[in-house]
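Reviewers of the previous submission asked for a worked example of the structure-prediction workflow described in the proposal, so we include one complete record here. The input consisted solely of the amino acid sequence. No template or homolog information was supplied to the procedure at any stage.
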Amino acid sequence: MIRPRLTCARVACLVAALLAAAGCSHYGFSPSLRTGPRTVGVPVLGNDTLEYGAEQGVTDAIITTLTEDNSMRVVPEGEAEAIIRGRVTTYERPVFSYDAAGNPREYKVRVAADLSYEDRRAGTVIWEGKVEGWGVYAVSGEGGSPTTEEEARAAAFERLAQDLLSKTVQGW
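From that input alone, the workflow returned the following structure tokens.
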């Protein structure tokens, strides 16, 4: 014996599922649907700090992060549809924590840069502002912190670049 209510309920569910799927059919993750710049140039940043090489380290971290993300292709500045420009404004190493005797145990490397993301095709600045990154290193090498300032510095540059990446691609 066929139950008409169950058959109608199944048909209604099937129709609802098909309508829902059809309503989402125009969405996709293909980069070809994106209207933003597809190429970006990243000239070496300026450096307003006393930390030698901070500008090159941040620039390299930005290029690496953009390349690994693969949202945009990094190209020479003259070929780019968009440009990321800016200056490293802060590089500091304040004490992050102390041991029981009051001696510094960990330091925090904090790096900040004023950056802008410009669409060269439209001649507009898409966003500009401060991005930051940080890393912590232990004086004695104990704990889960990187053991050297260089490792903390690299972590700070990487976090800054990740902050830039999220500001740059979040509008898609």
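Helices lie at 4-23, 54-69, 149-169. We consider this example representative of the routine output the project will generate in years two and three.
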